[in-house]
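S2.1 Query sequence (Class I SAM-dependent methyltransferase)
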Amino acid sequence: MADDCFAHPRLAAVYDPLHSDRADLDAYLGMAEEFGARRVLDIGCGTGVFALLLAGRGIEVVGVDPARASLDVARAKPGGGRVRWIHGDATGLPPLCADLATMTGNVAQAITDPHVWRETLRGVREALRPGGRLVFETRDPARRGWQEWTREDSCHVAEVPGVGTVEYRVELTEVRGPLVTFRQSYAFAADGQVLTSDSTVRFRERAEVERDLLAHGYELEEVRDAPDRPGREFVFVARRP
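Output structure tokens follow.
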């Protein structure tokens, strides 16, 4: 089930204005070009920002996401008809023979259940052609990035066309082993409504991810640094033999 920040129609509609800096996607665009990908599977595509960037370059794209409200936003964007949108997750994909599968942003960490994580890796492998690659990022738990998730540091105010002023904050609520839970709040000035969305992410050690990939039939090509967050994230590049 998708978190409210993606699944609630009012929150999905303001996601892009509140997260307008997507410099993190530049590295993924570069890898799509580096690997010569002509067919890409965008897992956890959300409101379709990355999928539409790829489609604008003439790449065939399949975007999959469990949040229908986010997919509705994606479909309504210019060029939305050029992407094949699938409501669901990566555990039961149709045959795709993709050259590249991606999980950008927090997607990999948002898959917290170990069984679902294993089934995701299996499903993605089956959706890739032989020689196709899976690329995703995950934060290095040693950096304890969750300590920076405070209401004061995260406050962001955006003026959203047709909506008005929206104030956004993030607050850490629980750390339990590798699981970190936080609450996002959205205050709409137009009518005073405040909506919240609780999310949990899993911080995996590099060795744990490497073992999972090997156990599910991938070859680990390399682990890169994230250009937008140097020293803070692992970017895994795995290949289906």
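The longest helix spans residues 114-127. The chain has a mean pLDDT of 96.
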